[in-house]
Amino acid sequence: MTTAPSIRLLLADDHPVVRAGLRAVLDTEHDFTVVAEAATAEAAVERAAAGGVDVVLMDLQFGAGGSMHGSEATAAIAARGPGAPRVLVLTTYDTDADILAAVEAGASGYLLKDAPPEELAAAVRTAAAGRSALAPAVAHRLMHRMRTPGETLTKRELEVLELVGEGLSNQQISKRLFLSQATVKSHLVHVFAKLGVESRTAAVAKARAHHLIRR
């Protein structure tokens, strides 16, 4: 009787304690082998490209030492096409902006860091098999967006609103997103209408209250 090959994992997170905790949990599964760790998104992309990895557990926000976001790293890994490792996003963020960015980047799954070990293990196996592995709360949010497309903010509207929340002006947002100022204003008009608000401050406050963007 032959045993199935182990699912080879790459842990991408900038916190050593988090990586150690994940390794401790994953090492208890007989069919998992943690083959590498990465402290930056750039390092994760490089290691994934080197081969020998089936699933990357990817954080979204990386601190000092790199400038790439987890969603950008996910897109870079997924862009390698057939044979590329599957990416399972494992993060603390459950906003629409983060979820959409990760899914559109090609993530095979999206899980929150407070998920129980058995849910994490199941998600890894699901992603390795080429299927979608979404946390129940994440799946619910995506289904709600699909059912109410006229009421939900688009990915670009969320990006603009995220930058408004960071205190950027329309001119600064236009430069950051490579849009005209007129386009930025148009997006904000749509945002105000969908959220039922009349100011930038109110839009940010409501979006944060409804977990559309980060606090």
Q: Which range does the strand content fall in?
A: 5-15%
Radius of gyration: 19 Å
Global structural class: alpha/beta
Spatial separation of the terminal alpha carbons: 53 Å
The chain-level mean pLDDT equals 92
Count of helical segments? 10
- The percent of residues in helical segments reads 40-55%
Helix and strand element order:
EHEHEHEHEHEHHHHH
Number of strands: 6
Oligomerization category of the chains in this entry:
single chain
The low-confidence parts are none
- The 3D shape can be described as elongated
Strand order of the largest sheet: 2-1-3-4-5-6
Instruction: State the major sheet.
Output: 6 strands, parallel
Protein architecture, described:
Helix 7 (155-165) crosses helix 9 (181-195) and helix 8 packs across helix 9. With 215 residues, the protein is of the alpha/beta class. Strand 3, helix 3 (70-78) and strand 4 (86-91) form a beta-alpha-beta unit. The protein is elongated. The protein has a six-stranded parallel beta sheet with strand order 2-1-3-4-5-6, with helices on both faces. It has helices spanning 16-26, 41-49, 70-78, 96-105, 117-128, 136-147, 155-165, 170-177, 181-195, 200-209; strands at 7-12, 32-38, 55-58, 86-91, 109-112, 133-134.
Gist of the model:
The chain is α/β, with parallel strands linked by helices and 215 residues long. The chain has ten helices and six strands; from the N terminus they run βαβαβαβαβαβααααα. The N and C termini lie far apart (53 Å).
